[in-house]
Amino acid sequence: MGDFSIGIDIGGTKIAAGIVNKTGEVFHRKVTPTPKETKMRVLELLKDIVSSYISIAEKERMHLIGIGIGSAGQINYKEGKILTGTDNIQDWNDVAISDYLSKYTDLPIFLDNDATTFAIAEHQLGSGKGMSDVVCLTLGTGIGGGIISGGNVIRGEWGGAAELGHITVNMDGPKCNCGSHGCVETYASGSGIANRMKERLHELDTTTNESAKTYFVENPDKLTSKEVFQWYHDGCPIADEVIDTAIKALSYGMITIIHTFNPSRIILGGGIVEDREWLIVKINDRLSNLGMHALVNPVDIQISKLGYDAGLIGAAYQSWIANK
Ligand code: BMX
Ligand code: ZN
Predict the structure, then answer these.
(1) Residues 259, 297: Cα–Cα separation, whole Å
(2) Closest ligand 1 atom to the C-alpha of 89?
(3) Is 90 exceeded by the pLDDT of residue 3?
(4) What's the CA-to-centroid distance between 240 and ligand 2, angstroms?
(5) What are the start-end ranges of the H helices in 204-308?
(6) Which residue has the higher pLDDT, 212 or 34?
(7) How far apart are CA 21 and CA 319, in angstroms?
(8) C-beta of 225 in contact with ligand 1 (< 6 A)
(9) What element of type H or E holds 53?
(10) How far apart are CA 136 and CA 308, in angstroms?
(11) Whose CA is nearest to atom 19 of ligand 1?
């Protein structure tokens, strides 16, 4: 049956997990909301996921060779520890994930940033296969970055590199929960799009945007990017500006990425781009008039082939990279 690895992807909204084979097939997929209370709740959930997969693997005679975990946050991959995390995940500071889980299993544990594991999956098995220079952006609760340069994963000294969602595109822009201002994430992530719309809800005109106004009155705190996209398609002018600004911010962020890494492809993933090919057309329109042409023009922007599973597949794939 070959070897298998457990893959877990911890994001600000959900935790996705599965047992993965070397070609990236996912078995026994599980998706759970990320516990909002404390890091201990997240750790207990991880322990439960790992224990249940170990019993399933035993029953089904799947030979497990490791556990790979991709998590949002600033991660010391050498120590298997989350150092810090923005408020996208509550209490996500100083979390010794590998130490905690190794009390329950002897399998090797590999921890990395979630967008880095996404990039590993796309590079090994997805849209970046066979390419030496690709950059990935995950557009979900936050915006994560993963970089493959010269065929190598770029992690920096301890694993904190590639926080590409925190490229500043407006020094006077909204405060970001990383501590800076006007990061791409504040405009183009799920939370960024929702926050920019919330700031402008008072401008909505009931005559032209009945559904938006009603929604705001009834659910002011529950607004998500999903509603903003819906209103954009319904012709709401404020939503139109919010989405246009998101595309603009993303395009300027990409120019910095292209000027810095000279990639041949940028792969986008996450809920914001899933099934929204039209976003790529709009980004390409903007990119055609920005930056240094020799660098920018040849870059091909694509949506992830592996989709929602990319993060967990890349996390699991670490077990094979380690065994090479
Ligand atoms: C944030 C940051 C990144 C992460 C990115 C995508 C935290 C908790 N998160 O910029 O480390 O890669 O979000 O995360 O510090 P997601 O929650 O959208 O999957
Ligand atoms: Zn930031």
Answers:
(1) 11
(2) 8
(3) yes
(4) 23
(5) 210-218, 225-234, 237-261, 277-287, 293-296
(6) 34
(7) 10
(8) no
(9) helix 39-59
(10) 14
(11) 11
Instruction: Please work out whether the CB of residue 190 comes within 6 Å of at least one atom of ligand 1.
Output: no
291 in contact with ligand 1, CB cutoff 6 A: no
Ligand nearest to the CA of 167: 2
Which tokens in the block code for residue 119?
């990039």
Measured distance CA(303)–CA(177) in Å, rounded: 26
Neighbours of 103 (CB within 10 A): 7
Whole-structure pTM value: 0.95
Residue 70 pLDDT > 90, yes or no?
A: yes
The C-alpha atoms of residue 7 and residue 114 are separated, in whole angstroms, by 11
Q: Is 311 in the pocket of ligand 1 (CB under 6 A)?
A: no
| SS3 state at 266 | strand
CA of 273 to the centre of ligand 1 (A): 16
The DSSP line for 63-116 is EEEEEEEEESSEEETTTTEEEE--TTSTT-SSB-HHHHHTTT--S-EEEEEHHH
- ipTM score assigned to the predicted complex: 0.99
Judged by DSSP in three states, 135 sits in strand
- d(CA 195, CA 26) in angstroms, rounded, equals 34
Given the residues 114, 133, 205, 244, the one annotated as active site: 114
Question: Distance of CA 108 to CAs 15, 111, 188, 319, Å?
Answer: 20, 10, 36, 8
Q: Name the one residue in this structure whose structure tokens are 């089904």.
A: 60
Least confident segment among 16-20, 142-146, 305-309:
305-309
Whether 114 is a known active-site residue: answer yes
pLDDT at 213: 61
Task: Kindly tell me if the per-residue pLDDT of 148 is higher than 80.
Answer: yes
At which residue do the structure tokens 């066979």 appear?
Answer: 130
pLDDT tier for residue 201 given thresholds of 50, 70 and 90: confident
| Ligand with minimal distance to 175 CA | 2
